[in-house]
Specification:
Pfam families: Hormone_recep. This protein is mostly helical. It has one domain: Orthogonal Bundle (Retinoid X Receptor). It is built from 12 helices and 4 strands. The strands form 2 sheets. It has a two-stranded parallel ribbon. α5 runs antiparallel to α6. The longest helix has 30 residues.
Length: 290
């Protein structure tokens, strides 16, 4: 279920060693063409255009089920409900364990195709945040998404995988941390989809790279709106009338996810510094597989 590739498991991070000056001179004189032949080009330009199209689409403030049925029916949907509905659409269908195919290895083309599909699906979910879509300029909602999508993905996949399939299908290079600090607390809380959405929204913006003060202010306001809507959700749709202890635990999960994300960022820096992928990548934020 969590399809991730860890480039550090099969390749050691290179280290600089002392070299014979003559050998170094010979290597530096090699034609640049040989390097170009080795370089893989990974272009996300088409994906970027599709994401911008998704973010430009205006969603209705109310939605009506075609048959008049369903959990939401013909009612006004606030942002929390929009995002929960988007999460349900994103996850459907949930396969049985027997239907899941485990991949040992995948070539770069398959990984690239998978990444494109996955990034678009999370972008579609993100577009359900109507307050952000309406109040942020395109460059800022795009930057907010691209810096947060991978951490949001990891949390959502862990929550879904653990709930429906258990520990045996969970795999990731940060496995122990995710199991002990994220998955086990998740299993104890038995999160609702609304609570998963709450956590995903609060992961947004943990990386503030190139986000303007105005964007951060709008994001802060949006999180306050979601918190108010969570209050109404708890009071009107659950038995958790005294829910403060759950919110504290949810925020602890969020802080754990963002802490792990920052830890992983250090490994990613090494990957880019030593050019482990041997690839020319148009948008490194989208080429994140672990």
């Amino acid at each position: 279920v969590i399809l991730d590739y860890d480039p550090t498991t099969s390749q050691k991070v290179p280290t600089m060693s002392k070299m014979d000056p003559k050998l170094l001179e010979e290597q530096s004189s090699e034609p640049e063409k040989s390097k170009e032949k080795m370089m893989i080009k990974i272009d996300f330009s088409e994906l970027v255009e599709k994401i911008e199209e998704i973010f430009e689409m205006k969603r209705e403030i109310s939605e009506v089920e075609e048959d008049g049925q369903g959990p939401f029916g013909s009612v006004y949907l606030n942002d929390l409900q929009h995002l929960t509905k988007g999460l349900q659409e994103f996850r459907a269908p949930i396969w049985s364990k027997e239907e899941i195919q485990k991949l040992g290895m995948a070539d770069i083309k398959k990984i690239f195709i998978w990444l494109n599909v996955r990034i678009q699906k999370y972008a579609t979910w993100f577009s359900h945040a109507t307050y952000l879509m309406e109040n942020l300029p395109m460059n800022q909602k795009f930057q907010l998404y691209r810096t947060s999508w991978n951490s949001i993905r990891m949390f959502e996949r862990i929550a879904m995988t653990w709930k429906h399939y258990g520990q045996e299908i969970l795999f990731h290079p940060f496995l122990n941390k995710y199991i002990e600090e994220v998955a086990r607390p998740l299993s104890e809380l038995d999160l609702t989809e609304e609570e998963v959405v709450f956590c995903m929204i609060n992961i947004l913006g943990f990386d503030v790279t190139d986000l303007t003060p105005e964007t951060l202010e709008i994001l802060h306001k949006f999180k306050e709106i979601i918190s108010d809507q969570m209050h109404n959700y708890y009071m009107n749709s659950t038995n958790f009338k005294m829910y403060s202890h759950r919110i504290i635990k949810l925020m602890k999960l969020v802080n754990t996810m963002t802490a792990i994300a920052r830890e992983k960022a250090k490994i990613k820096e090494i990957i880019w510094i030593f050019d482990i992928y041997k690839a020319e990548i148009s948008d490194p934020y989208f080429f994140q597989m672990f």
